[in-house]
Amino acid sequence: MSNAITNCYVNFGGYKLNLPNSFKYLLFCLTIIVGVIFFSCETPERKTTSTEIKKDTLLYLNHSDSAKYVGINTCKLCHQDIYNTYIKTGMGKSFDVASKIKSSADYHNSVIYDKIGDFYYKAFWQNDSLRFLEYRLQGKDTIYKRQETVDFIVGSGQHTNSHIQSVNGYLNQMPMTFYTQKQKWDLPPGFEDGHNSRFMRKIGLECMSCHNNYPEFVLGSENKFTAVPEGINCERCHGPGSIHVAERQTGSRIDTSKYIDYSIVNPAKLSIDAQFDICQRCHLQGNTVLKEGKSFYDFKPGMKLSDYMTVFLPKYKNADDEFIMASHADRLKQSACFIKSIEKTTSPAFQASPSKGERATATQKLKPYKDAMTCVTCHNPHVSVRETNPNVFNDACNSCHNVNGKSKINCSKKGITKISNCVSCHMPKSGSIDIPHVTVHDHYIRKPITNTDKKGIKEFIGLYAINEKNPNSITKARAYLNQYEKFENKAAYLDSASTYLKDKTEADVKANLEPLVQLYFIKNDFNKIVNYTNKLGDQTILNTLLIKKSYSNNHAWTSYRIGEAFYNLSDLQRAINYYKKAVDLAPFVLDFKNKYGSALAAKGLFSNAEKEFTEILKENPKHISALTNLGYVKLSQGNVKEAEQLYFKALSLDPDYEALLLNIAGLCAYKKDFKQAEMYLNKITKRNPNNIKAKQALAQIKQML
Length: 705
Known about the structure:
- The chain is built from 27 helices and 24 strands.
- Strands 3, 8, 9, 10, 11, 12 and 13 form a seven-stranded antiparallel beta sheet that branches. A four-stranded antiparallel beta sheet has the order 4-5-6-7, with no helix packed on it. It has a three-stranded antiparallel beta sheet with strand order 16-17-24, covered by helices on one side.
- About 40% of the residues are buried.
């Protein structure tokens, strides 16, 4: 019986570790957990050098790096009336601490069930704290439960309330969303169909910088913040206000009915494109690729968005009726109303004609948007849509579809005798393809379509840059790689990315190293990555090419991926070198540190590994993989009791973590409790019959029973 275990060993990526004989019952199934790296929205880089300002925006003083954000409470001192209405808008109510006032949810029926994950969730208030209970039933018995506190609610409540937890500043989305239109609790978007990440979906700067005002983000992390604002405020559309406030305090005044006040951006007085760019910053959600050296912090109102980021969306043939939730700008720009209005403003006849007593062009007029169709043609961003009279939208339509006071709109042919709401027919409500249980107005304004109008099979055409005409090849490559990692795992995206990336010469590899490594990491072609590394040399890569700390962590990610290539090809020392570089560049990306610690343990450097895992748990005590790995190290050092405590703390957070269950089964076997070991192994094989390690361990255990 003992011979079946004596010859077993712990395997770290192919490395046999010689450990004390006292662990002979433990070692047959102990495993170090490397941690899963979740590819979430990438966090952007904050610029540290002077902002490059384009020629047509030099006049705006608050584009300077010296301009600071002053906050909404400063703005309201002079603009109280606007403040009073703005805080009722979707933007004004976008984000706040979790409170009964902020919540739009109904808690009378707040239980949901994830059938695939076999978890129940219940939302409830405990005094003034919003709590989520995750639990599992066996018959009528509760066999597992975990309770967590909600720290923030994101969403105005017009469509949804989603929920965020902060663990020492690390923000993660929680597994319950309230869909207000249907008054229904359900899993959040992206958590469905077996993708329930429970309490571990990272909320990075890309997400936060649209759903909220700019937060204080920790350099070298994915999702750690030192300060989080409470809603989108005035300066997201007007730019930093410190210079404007200082001028007013010194008595400087400008007649804004005749002139532009260049101490602050007034979107109404921007060119049509510049005004659109403010809205497109968040209402053109899609696959965003940042320009080299830029970050989500850098764009300011009045600047050109494509100087900082390019937003891509997939385009399909025969799918005009499909759209994502935050695609308002893209859909509007497809509308004939918009296209014809832009054609009018750029025509020679328009530019040569007098307007309101002055010789004017679209760029010279004080409010150029009035001669075209933009978002503010219909929307007053200072007033909630809910409190806007429907006639406001009808009047916007009639302002164009009207000749000599008579409407050009003829709906009688459609059997409509009274026009009460243009939007209901020409911008009908429907569900978006990315958010369940929600209906929104499609901003593609057009004649009503019927099912008989929809012809042909949906066919992917390609990714299109919505806010830039001709992005460069590396930007297109990054877009296709992001599309694969973040949205749809289709091989065609990888094929498209490879067509934009040259690698024939050393210069090509050096210029395209980051996306090339990303491409072949996704493909699990580790030999290709190693070949690139050997071509350039470790010293060149580690000391020259991958040296930049940033909010996007691009260099750290590339170093991590190279480390993974060496680890999978059993070159442990070179893997450690690249993992260490990733940790040096991004010390608060805890999964990097976890993998570095795992590699150190694989080489038998247990004290060094213990240091890494301990640092992770100081940052985030709920890091399940680090708890498990530290437990393994403690066992390796003979500290059985400490290992057991760490294992069961991890188990209280995740009852299904397979590597953890293997380690606990090994611990039970070490203690000669073979029945208990069998129970934990059966848990694994019941949920995942293809787990080879668990099946092998079960076969050995059965020989001992």
